[in-house]
Amino acid sequence: MIKAYAAHQPGGELQPWEFDPGPLGPGQVEIEVEYCGICHSDLSMLNNDWGLTKYPFIPGHEVVGRVRAWGEGVERFQSGQSVGLGWYSKSCMNCQWCMAGDHNLCATAEGTIVGRPGGFANRVRADQHWVLPLPAGMNLATAGPLFCGGLTVFNPLMQLGVKPTDRVGVIGIGGLGHMALGFLKAWGCHVTAFSSSPDKEAEAKVLGAHQFVNSRDPQALAGLVNSLDLILSTVNVPLEWDTYIQLLRPRGKLHLVGAVLQPLSLSVFPLLTGQKSLSASPLGSPVTATQMLEFAARHGIEPMTEVYPMEEANQGIDRLKSGKARYRVVLKA
After folding, report:
1. Which residues of the chain have pLDDT under 50?
2. What CATH number is given for 151-280 in this structure?
3. In the 8-state DSSP scheme, what is residue 12?
4. CATH architecture, domain defined by 2-148+284-332
5. Least CB-packed of 52, 81, 215, 256 within 10 Å?
């Protein structure tokens, strides 16, 4: 039996719940959960904001733990090996996108918490291709958020061919944005942090920003017109997108990784005249995730976390809801 914490209705409180997962299938790996981050996507799924949730619902897709069992055909793991699991738990491995190494674009990719039990549990299962070994010496207590939030902001660096000479802006210094600052600084970029919270300036500079801009200050924004090669938006709320398009240099890109639910409104003419572009991306492939983990380990990049015991999962979710967490909440099994 697997012991977990599950909600039985939209927005419901998580309660202890046990279930029999049945025998391990071919290619499956069972992980003993040691830590599991709480992501805003867990909250969205808990509330069924995306219409994808099935109840009882077990959140948790930033899992770190140890391999304890595996099914037929799995040969690359050892018992007790430290591994992690993120948003995706399976992809078809046969489609054009999987064959090209873009498993995260697979049309039938399985979400770790979509229609299946997640990591707010003592054990969780996933396909072997999405279970990733941790680099030697990586801190297990802080590694979980790298598997979702970290990968989300690292993937654009690979996909967009970001260069060390680029000047990059990050909108939103929160769960995603604070990790983006660290990755971009280590990448060699000049990094500008945009936030509506002036009190985050000192911390943003410690995390990796060379420059901090109050996004509610029109004069400060105007001073950056035509200065950035890339702006990475990590927020999930609508903004004055035209303002940020103006900050881009010719051929600059505004790239979205925050799940804004409202339709975007922006003018096409500035895009045309400056050959600028708008894009977005979902997490990353297992290969990109492995590169991200190695890069984070090499440069000592760790998310800032607040840790709660697994049995206090509801308090952890409340902390996430408050918007005051610095900057990721992690549950310890």
Report:
1. none
2. 3.40.50.720
3. P
4. Alpha-Beta Complex (3.90)
5. 52
Tell me which residue of 114, 117, 112 sits closest to 18, measured CA to CA.
117
Helix and strand element counts for the chain (H, E): 11, 17
Give the residue among 130, 120, 58 at the shortest CA–CA distance from 90.
130
Query: In 167-267, where does DSSP find H-type helix?
Result: 177-187, 201-207, 218-222, 241-247
Question: How far is CA 318 from each of CA 74, 289, 310, rounded to the nearest angstrom?
Answer: 38, 29, 14
Task: Output helix, strand, coil percentages for the chain, rounded to the nearest 5.
Answer: 30, 30, 40
Give the residue from 280, 297, 79, 67 showing the smallest Cα distance to 182: 297
What is the spatial distance between Cα 9 and Cα 34, in angstroms, rounded to a whole number?
26
Work out the percent of the chain whose per-residue pLDDT is above 70.
100
Q: Where in the chain is the domain with CATH 3.40.50.720?
A: 151-280
Helices (H), the chain: 40-46, 96-99, 140-143, 149-159, 177-187, 201-207, 218-222, 241-247, 269-274, 286-299, 313-322
- pLDDT tens for 155-202 read 999 999 999 999 999 999 999 999 999 999 999 999 999 999 999 999
- Per residue in 193-216, pLDDT (tens digit) is 999 999 999 999 999 999 999 999
Which residue, chain included where needed, has tokens 């950035």?
228
